[in-house]
Amino acid sequence: MKKFVVERNFPGAANLSPEELETISRTFCEAIGKLKKPHHWVKSFITEDKIYCIHIAESREAILEHAKLGKVPVNTISEVKTIIDPANSNLLC
Predict the structure, then answer these.
(1) How many angstroms separate the CA atoms of 65 and 68, rounded?
(2) Which site among 18, 27, 38, 81 is 20 to 30 Å from 63 CA-CA?
(3) 46 membership: H or E segment, kind and range
(4) From CA 67, how far away is CA 18, in angstroms rounded?
(5) CA–CA separation, 17 vs 13, rounded Å?
(6) 28-66, pLDDT tens digit by residue?
(7) By the 8 A CB rule, do 44 and 54 touch?
(8) Distance CA 73, CA 52 (A)
(9) pTM score of the predicted model
């Protein structure tokens, strides 16, 4: 399984109501339930006009299949190759 960052253009994303966010979340989960392969949606980050989602899946094709089933846009899919954080610096930030 690989980790991916999925970028979705979503004008007005920052203004989505709690109810709309719940609907999107339910849509993501229901689409995963329809997949016939392992897939895990980790979390999403909402910015002004985009939603960035972290998924663990077998391939880019699995991400596209999830998006098709959920009828949600996908603008870019990037496979995560390495993760860094403050622990990598050996310093406290």
Answers:
(1) 5
(2) 18
(3) strand 39-46
(4) 21
(5) 9
(6) 999 999 998 899 999 999 999 999 999 999 999 999 999
(7) yes
(8) 11
(9) 0.88
